[in-house]
Amino acid sequence: HQLSVLLGPLCSAYRAGTLPALLQQLHSACQPSSARNLHLCEGYPSADGRYHSGFYCPRLTDPPAHRYCCRHGDHALKSCCPQLEFESLRRVNLSNVPTPARLRNPLPLLAVGLYGLLVLTLMTLDFLHFCRLNQRRFYSLLSSSRLGKSLLRQEGNRLFQAGDYAAALASYTRALALCAGPPERAVLHRNRAACHLKLEDYASAEADASKAIEADGHDVKALFRRSQALQKLGRPDQAVYDLRRCVSLEPRNKAFQEALHDLGSSMQEKVSLMSCTDSKVEQMFQILLDPKETDTDKKQKAAQNLIVLAREEAGAEKIFQSDGMRLLLRMLDTGREDAMLAALRTLAGLCSGHRSRTMAILAELEAPRVSAMLGVEHEQVSLAACNLLQVMFDALKEGLQRDFRGKEEAVVLDPSKELKLLIGHLLEMLTREGTSAHGHDNTLNLLIKVVPRKSPREPNNSLTLWVIDQGLKKILEVGGTVCEAPGSLPATENSRMSAAVLLSKLYSDLKCDAERENFHRLCEDYVRSWFEGHGLAGKLRAIQTVSCLLQGPSEAGNQVLELEGIMESVLALCASVREVDQLVAVEALIHAADKAKRASFITANGVTLLKNIYKCSGRDSIRIRALVGLCKLGSAGGTDFSMKQFAEGSTLKLAKQCRKWLCNEAIDASTRRWAVEGLAYLTFDADVKEEFVEDKAAVQAMFQLSEDRSVLFAVASTLVNCTNSYDHEEPDPQMLELAKYAKQHVPEQHPKDEPGCVRRRVRKLLAAGVVSALTCMVKSENPAPTNSCRELISRVFLAVVEEAADRGSVVAQGGGKALIPLSLEGTEVGQAKAAQALAKITITSNPEMAFPGERIYEVVRPLVSLLHLHRTGLENFEGLMALTNLAGISERLRQKILKEKAVPMIEGYMFEEHELLRLAATECMCNMAMSTEVQELFLAEGSDRLKLLVLYSGEDDEKLRRAASGTLAMLTSLLPQICGKITQVTAHWLEILQALLLSPNVELQHRGAVIVLNMMAADREIAAKLMESEMLEILSVLAKEECDKPRVAQAAKECLAQAVACGLIKPNVNGE
């Protein structure tokens, strides 16, 4: 009854949903006020049934005075409040209530601590159990790491003794990563220093030797190696100190004594030479500075001696230290051309390869003075100043990349400011009044060499961006100069082309669309500023600038050409009566006709004008340009026989006139060059090609003009067209049918572009001396051909060596020598074409005759480049065939092929599905197997190389069997341990050997007999297996065929004799 009385209200509260609140009230009521903590807000449920966890007042978000827990009604949430609010809410006076102790239940914290201690204990026990189970494995790993260090060091020693210093260095470096003890690290650093010395990396050798000496100051080997490195680095004083320490540590070592004696002698000779040089330098300066000296020969000799002395490091340093700069400045101040030339060339020698000296000379000369010498009227002085600035730029740029050590590091400053200062003065030179025409050309050529990045892989193009911002308009001003107009800048025939090349280089060096948009905007603003508001002269200047842009960055030129009124003004100026207007407009029209869309517009609107200009103009320079314009428009259809821009026979008439101009030596060379430009366009037509190669006088006249750099590209383009050496893909027949069905235009090939006609044209060009002309074009150094021109030359070379009968004459005229630089520099396509031409020559000619001396080793790298996967199958095949010939010549060539990492690529092609590629790779591997490094590859565990050769020896392809079995015969004779591996790589080895011996091909029989003989001599068990099979009968039969197959019979007899020696068989009674 009492229980029901107690639980009744609780059940009613539970049904009403107020049970949590009731329990809370009961709990609060049961506790005395003194026992309650007034600062603690205990957890509680709200009116919506959600439970709220408790907290202690004040919270982090509450003011410090809010230290009491308050709740304003049953439906409100608990919060922290100040003392007055709490007293009014509870209606109590806290001053009369004793302060309760702050009660915090420590049990949860204690439970968490005990739980953490338990987890830590379990983890410790688990770790101890793991160590106990893996104790042996741990010690084995520790011992293997120690063993690995020892093995790597031994491997490095072996590779060093074999002469593979790069691989030895890698082994020592890996061993160094496993070492912890200073003594072992010192030895490895000492060994690395020896490798660096052999690899001629003297700075690294000095660094490694120094680390070894830091660990052990009495290490004589490290001291001696550091002395060798210091001598090569030009620090003999420090080298002497190390050698003296070596002699003091090992007084009886003759090698140290001789090295110290030699170094001392060389230093004494250097001192005596320097003392002798002092007097010579003074005499030379006296002769050159003496105004009373009238002996010209004596002055020239003194100047030449001074220049030669400055090119040597010792002489340059002596001139620099013996007040030479002051005397050289006096020579420049004389104003005499001979003295200025001698001074400038001597300064170039002083600056060459020496950054600190360059910066000191630049500070003494001052940048404005150096750049001003470019603009003098005397051409030789301007060229000498250009060369001096080029040397300075090279030295300063090298300083940005080199790691200087020793004395020079203390005196060298950051050269980036000097670079920009010099380039800024060069840009000012372009528009400075008084600068000569040669000065403009030399300045532009210098900017071409020093501003753009050497490679797109270099991340920083800030110098290019700075030049565009500071000097693009100045470059455009030179490129847009109209020489005949009053007040124009002095310029030569090449000035506009040089400006176009510089603009093209700058544009190609830009990395993103935003940079290119800025370039376009600057060009448009400059052209618009001249085109609007400057009358006819301004329009002429703007159109000339557009021509320059079209010759350089054509994308920017085409965008500027689309400005309103430009094209219309070009056509209008063509009809002008002034010759200068016609000249500028016709050139612009020629360059604007590059795009097919624009060419059709010009054909419709400008052909009549060009014809009238050609017929009516009295100046040859204008007539030839109009003729070239007509040629370019007439060739707009390219090689498509069905696309004729002009009437039948018109292009032949144009070509005839171009040949006439070309052969007329009475006309100046600049006008004749335009005739080559016209032929470069017209030779897309096969009829024009045929007539041109028949005209031997015109061909040879073109070759003579190719000595001028401005016409190189046109000459190369003409030859590419005549030899059809441009890329063209055969169209898919199904796609052709679909195009015809859809009534789409299908390009047609000219009947005279068939392979037979092309071969006849090539022979005629060979007879006219095309190889000699191409060789001279490649050798051109002032300036060197552009990469695009080199690519065209490579295409022509590939075309002329297509026929094996012509390759001998190509080599005899220097074609082989010219192809090597073409295959190493230039565009990727150009290098590939030149390498393929080299491969063709190497396949059919004796490489030692075609590439005499050291040149044969330069051929290896281009040939290896043909093996890369992105090359065509034909290039792969020809590269393998050429390397096969080279690998069979000498061990040194095989080592060169190994160094170029060609063996893995050759192995890859041995797995090719294409029969010819697989055969060529196997033949190449057969010759490479004569090298010890390649032989060891076949002994490597887990490799399928040997298995592949054994299986190929049983293939149906006779040539493949011959190459594979020949390799096996060579390997088994050189490496007896391979004989045992042959029986393990495949279960069909015995059948394959029997098939070789039973082959109708004598060469295969001989190879098989040699393999069997080597296997029997290597292992008696293998010999027993062979004699237990049908091999005994086969060998017995072959041994009797002495008349028909003497070599096979001899090898078979030796096999039987080996079996007798092993006691496996017995001879007959008669001794046979």
Annotation keywords:
mainly alpha, disordered N terminus, Serine Threonine Protein Phosphatase 5, Tetratricopeptide repeat, single chain, 6 strands
Quick structural summary:
With 1072 residues, the chain is an all-alpha fold. It is 70% helix and 1% strand. Strand 2 and strand 3 (51-52) form a beta hairpin.
3D architecture notes:
With 1072 residues, this protein is an all-alpha fold. Among the domains are: 146-270, Alpha Horseshoe (Serine Threonine Protein Phosphatase 5, Tetratricopeptide repeat), CATH 1.25.40; 452-563; 652-761, no CATH class; 937-1071, Leucine-rich Repeat Variant (Alpha Horseshoe). Helix content is 70%, strand content 1%. It contains 58 helices and 6 strands. The strands form 3 sheets. It has a two-stranded antiparallel sheet. A two-stranded antiparallel ribbon has the order 2-3. Helix 48 runs antiparallel to helix 49. The protein is extended and about 115 Å long. The model is unreliable at 1-7, 18-35, 138-147 and 400-412 (pLDDT under 50).
Number of helices: 58
- Evaluate the radius of gyration: 44 Å
What is the class of the domain at 937-1071 in the CATH system?
Mainly Alpha
CATH superfamily label of the domain at 937-1071: Leucine-rich Repeat Variant
Query: What is the CATH architecture assignment of the domain at 937-1071?
Result: Alpha Horseshoe
Shape: extended
Unreliable runs: 1-7, 18-35, 138-147, 400-412
Look at the helices and sheets and give the structural class: mainly alpha
Classify the helix fraction into a percent range.
Answer: over 70%
CATH fold type of the domain at 937-1071? Leucine-rich Repeat Variant
GO molecular function: Hsp90 protein binding
Keywords: Acetylation, Chaperone, Cytoplasm, Developmental protein, Differentiation, Myogenesis, Nucleus, Repeat, TPR repeat
GO biological process, one term: protein folding
TPR repeats: 220-253
